[in-house]
Amino acid sequence: MRLLQALLYREITILKKRFPEIITLWIFSILFGLFVIYGPSVLLNTSVEHVVDRLSMLFGKKLSLEDALTLMFTLSAVISMTTMTMSDFAQQIVDDKFSGAIDHVLLSTTLVRYYISYAIALSIVTTPVATIYLVPLLYLVKGLGGVLIYAYLLPVFLLSCILLSLYASSIIVPLAYLTKIQRLWILPSIIVPMLLAGSGVFIPLTIVPLFLKLLAYTSPLPETCTILQDMLLRAAGKLALPLTLLTMLMVLYVLLYSGTAKIAEARARTQGAALT
Amino acid sequence: MSSHAIIVENLRKKYIVREGLRGKKIVEALRGVTFRVRKGTIHALLGPNGAGKTTTLRIISTLLLPDEGRVEVLGHDVVKETEKVRKILGVVLDVSRGFYLLLSGFENLVFYGMLRGMSIKEAKRRARQVLELVGLDESAAARPYHTYSLGMRARLAIAKALMTDPEVLLLDEPTLGLDVESARTVRSLLQALAREGRTILVTGHNMHEIEQIAHEVTIINNGQVVISGSIEQLRNYVGSVCKLCMKLGQANARELLLKLRDRFEIIREEISQADTYISVTMYIRANREDIMSTIFEIVKKTDVKLLDLSLSEPTLEDVYISIVRRT
């Protein structure tokens, strides 16, 4: 518990200093949501209603402009949350190794416990920060009901973010501590667009190419998008299957992480962890 | 109850160094290192680069596991009782690294304090105390770490090591790269900490500095301890060696040097020539009286102009070089 508190303290302190970056992330996410609907209308000189009709066809439900905006803004929050989680995780590991801070961390705890606690701390901090801009946006679109929608979606975002952090940890920790790869920040910039493209953020999952879909299914994102779409567009009764899949993924990530991180820990204790 | 704070016995450690995709090389960093550090003293671990000092320190700090051998810190085995050892140890591994760049010095200390099990309130209180102890004022402590000078980083690293009020401190080259004033501050700090009864094991390359602060010294080379003891014991180990510094007039100087070389065992000599004189430094294995009488005898006979003369005991640096060259 003390470890988690320490990590929360560090994450919140760092976050306060990175506020301009976060605002930039919000602006891009908002522009994405707006552009999906208003972009084609401006570029192709068609009406907004026509664009909304096309979206209705894609998502299989008659949407109003408010529904379409709510859906697109919500999906944009998935983009900002995924980007922040994956890149922050990679950056943290790079910082730990290059600054030599990992040595001091390992004087207090184990590598396995440190990064799993970091995954949880990162999710707790990142989820509200990466999605909070939805509150004023959804309020503008749907009034007070929009704020309620955010409160309703927040647990899904949190669950998804925890899973994403675990996913990141099971990939990045072994790469960082068992291989010679040093420029780990490249990894999120390759993986994140592929995961997002394959998860139905930009287009519904049913029409995503198979390769991207298979890749994306290693992450929690496709199920998160399905749950969010179901919650926003349909009744929430269809959530059982995606939630079961997410739980299975969580178990898988924890097992994968624990196994690889224990090997990394053994390597760190015999050969050293920080870059010297 | 042992009078030793740290006991290192027959420590062995190998590293696997990977070369390319498949190749690997095994490097033997420690080959049976043994030494003891007395309680409440400053003990210096000296040796050339790659001698095994940092590896030894990392094993004592519980960061690395030894392949063989035993290390005890205040009676606790570093492998079997890791948690107990960590509670009594403060570690400075690299004065210029080990902190998060975006966080301030104060925030870094609070984070590390919490990591060691303190509550946020306790960590903040202790961080203020240790910052004051190392002489970092509030405005400095509030600055982001990446703006710190090397001297400030060194002080912060020592502050971090003191967060848990440890009985034993391990410091790896704490004055490396520091300017004269910062190095002096760090030295004074270490002496003050030793006076409080803490045991300090320190590595370094500045012999003048080590000579000032260390009570005992262990010299390590090629992963093996060459000698361990007080600076006096080290001098005796080298034997009766004197450092002779002379300034001689140009005429007949060569003759004097040849006669000295004939008469005594010269361990090392440095000769530089100026416009009007020759400057000579010699490390001679002989007693002071013999050297002095011989010099005056030769000067009388050869009519060499002796412009300046000093004969002194060798410094720790002289002793160190002599020992390391022998091995």
Order of helices and strands of chain B: EEEHEEHEHHHHEHEHEEHEHEEHEH
* Helix fraction bin of chain A: over 70%
How many domains would you count in the coordinates of chain A? Answer: 1
The profile of the biggest β sheet of chain B is: 6 strands, mixed
Figure out the total of helices of chain A.
12
Q: What integer value in Å does the Rg of chain B equal?
A: 24 Å
Morphology call of chain B: elongated
* Rg of chain A, alpha carbons: 20 Å
- How many H/I helices of chain B? 12
Helices and strands of chain A, in order, run as: HHHHHHHHHHHH
The termini of chain B sit apart by 35 Å
Give the percentage of residues in beta strands of chain B.
25-35%
Mean pLDDT value of chain A: 85
End-to-end Cα distance of chain A, whole Å, is 30 Å
Query: Overall 3D geometry of chain A?
Result: elongated
User: What is the beta-strand fraction of chain A?
Assistant: under 5%
What order do the helices and strands come in, and which of them pair?
The complex is a heterodimer of chains A (276) and B (327).
Chain A: H1 2-17, H2 19-43, H3 48-59, H4 65-99, H5 101-106, H6 111-131, H7 134-142, H8 144-178, H9 186-198, H10 210-216, H11 221-233, H12 240-271
Chain B: E1 4-19, E2 23-38, E3 42-46, H1 53-60, E4 68-73, E5 76-77, H2 82-88, E6 89-92, H3 105-115, H4 120-133, H5 138-142, H6 150-162, E7 168-172, H7 180-195, E8 199-203, H8 207-213, E9 216-221, E10 224-230, H9 231-238, E11 241-249, H10 253-263, E12 265-273, E13 277-285, H11 288-302, E14 306-312, H12 316-326
Parallel strand pairs in B: 3-8, 3-9, 6-7, 7-8
Antiparallel strand pairs in B: 1-2, 1-4, 4-5, 9-10, 11-13, 11-14, 12-13
Helix pairs in contact in B: 3-4, 4-6, 9-12, 10-11
